[in-house]
Write a structure and sequence with these properties.
2 domains, Aspartate Aminotransferase, domain 2, 390 residues, alpha/beta, seven-stranded mixed sheet, homodimer, Aspartate Aminotransferase, domain 1, three-stranded antiparallel sheet, 14 helices
């Protein structure tokens, strides 16, 4: 009749997220909660809203932690800014761009798409030409495509969008806290992310920032968004004017406050550099093992790596070995990349030289157990890369 | 530069929620997370989906924990079932009925309302007459009105609704886990709640159950709901078919699993009885102190009490005294009940004889410090009521 208290297995989370959670965040999760209108809750929220612009690299005043996961952040961005019948342009080169399109379609927007294969990025000229031709009201792109491992620069997109009077939404779910997001420098109007990747908290909140230009658009919207739960102006009255909207979770806010405090302590640029170094070491290792990276050099995420699955190897069997024999979570590809890539995350607290060496050794052992014969010792190559990095 | 680790104040949460969280749930919150597609995550979810029908008193197969707060549960119920142009009837006798109306309006539904003062309930005959006259496609009511403290029976509403081919949504945010919800016996088609009241977990998830009839309606809907994040059929593919939808929070699922396990251990009916006993003792106490209850006897929630603020007393000053001097959170009224009632929750882990006596003593002291002169010793009356209860 009685269930025994829950005892989760110990996992090394090196997939596309959630990432490893540091002890300070776990400690915060177990702290006593307060109410969603308690003065202490708003102190915590004030700290979060002071630290969010730091990780987004923005001077925006409007920064909020949405009470939902990263996909709730995406829906908040789309539902507040896509309007029925208006043109909504999406750069589509991966799974989450498809999700953006689908959400905009559901809002009744007229969706126009520029499609390229998963793992490629859009060049400045072609992005610009697409926007000038379509003259949309909104432009959305994914800065860090979790399905492919590609990083999409946004400056040319934002410049062209602003020329035609459009606002820019950028999905920063897999970049925030791990590599440059640069909201202001890029010209992004609405950026959203999650808590469980570069910020190394559990999933549950979606940080979101809105530029003054986008805020003006929101304030002059003719109709209210269909969503009440994710209505950004209502959320603003809660967090800024402390008027009840919904019951935000003290637990999740505690965790995010601690996750952001750890980033401030480390220094954002030092944190990027740590992610870059470990990413490069990982790449050196898998390439030495004879695996190719799916995304060309210079376009890769530092947070999430997508080495190709060697010919003749069943990626699901390799992943099962890692999970069952070693307690390591990595992910496979899906959609057009199903069976073709591994997705290996080195994010936040999990981005360490030790984890790079460990996953290379474990991946190599699993591949060889599945019959893979190519390549050299990946771990040794990564050690060299780490030592040589400056 | 560096923020000190977070140290929340210790609060006794006796407001309308969040309620006190038991140690076993806090322990679960600090446990190591797993991924949202990990076999262990689905084990936890399976246990949650086994236990949710128990607390809802239903045989429904479709039970889900939505990744958002109670208001996300409300939005899921409305956005999946309200369709543009279709008639959506709402029984309006409190703040959360207003919210239901507003959400249905945003979905483009044609909203018809039956209004009564906050704190009253709808009689069977008048409820029935309204539904038979309006012949809506959907009917929504609030079983446990957190703004007023009133419990709305739903059987007559559900019978009439089904006669005209309508489905019934019931807001059970402040009843679930603390008093009878009785989904099947009442005839409710869609019921939703939250985690931070009768279930005594932190806020962050919204349990929701859907009847086979409502599921059939969903499956034959002509258009997809505007919301992707809260699309119930998509959520079903995630939790039933284990296909990725969004990154559910292991932390929140751990907590809910433990909260539900504690209810199974206690026994649902024993738990209701505990809430009823403590509620009655509280009422005996405040009435002895000379305060009137806003809601008539027999229509009161057992989870949330709304004694009237005595004439000449500023409720905000009383609440500030309780919070600042004693660390006790209670809430005031708002809307038409602003300044007129206190809202005092005795829910879940917080519904104990000790808390009844403590809040009565503290409330009385705060009232007397603010100049209140009426009544007898409330604590003594509650002690008698507790002793006499059988």
């Amino acid at each position: 009749m009685s269930l025994a208290p829950l005892r989760p297995p110990k996992r090394l989370l090196l997939g596309p997220g959630p990432s490893m959670v540091p002890p300070r965040v776990y400690e915060a999760l177990g702290q006593q909660i307060v109410g969603h209108l308690d003065p202490f809750f708003f102190e915590v929220d004030d700290e979060i809203r002071r630290l969010l612009p730091m990780v987004f690299s923005t001077k925006n005043d409007f920064n909020v932690a949405i009470s939902g996961t990263g996909s709730a952040g995406m829906e908040a961005a789309v539902a507040n800014f896509a309007e029925p019948g208006q043109k909504f342009a999406v750069f589509v080169n991966g799974f989450f761009c498809e999700r953006l399109s689908e959400m905009a379609r559901r809002q009744g927007a007229s969706v126009v798409r520029f499609e390229k294969p998963w793992g490629t990025v859009f060049e400045d000229d072609e992005a610009r030409a697409f926007i000038l031709r379509e003259k949309p009201r909104m432009v959305a792109y994914v800065q860090a495509e979790t399905s492919s491992g590609a990083y999409q620069p946004g400056k040319a997109i934002a410049e062209a969008a602003h020329e035609v009077g459009a606002l820019v939404i950028a999905d920063c779910v897999t970049s925030l806290g791990g590599m440059p997001v640069l909201v202001d420098e890029t010209g992004i109007d609405i950026a959203y992310s999650c808590t469980q990747k570069g910020l190394s908290c559990p999933p549950g909140l979606a940080p979101l920032t809105v530029s003054p230009l986008a805020l003006e658009r929101l304030r002059t919207r003719q109709t209210s968004p269909e969503t009440w739960y994710l209505d950004l102006l209502l959320l603003d009255t809660y967090y800024s004017s402390r008027r009840y909207h919904h019951t935000a979770s003290a637990t999740m806010f505690y965790a995010l406050r601690e996750g952001l405090a750890l980033i401030e302590e480390e220094g954002l640029e030092a944190r990027w550099e740590r992610h870059r170094r470990n990413h490069l070491a990982f790449v050196a290792g898998v390439e030495a093992m004879g695996l190719k990276m799916h995304v060309p050099e210079g376009q890769r995420l530092w947070t999430l790596n997508t080495p190709c699955v060697p010919a003749g190897i069943d990626d699901a069997r390799v992943r099962a070995r890692l999970l069952e024999e070693r307690g390591i979570e990595i992910a496979g590809g899906f959609g057009p990349l199903a069976g073709k890539v591994f997705r290996i995350g080195l994010m936040g607290y999990g981005s360490t030289p030790e984890n790079v060496l460990l996953i290379l050794e474990a991946l190599e052992a699993a591949l060889r157990a599945e019959g893979y014969r190519g390549g050299d010792n990946g771990r040794a190559a990564a050690e060299q890369a780490l030592a040589a990095y400056r």
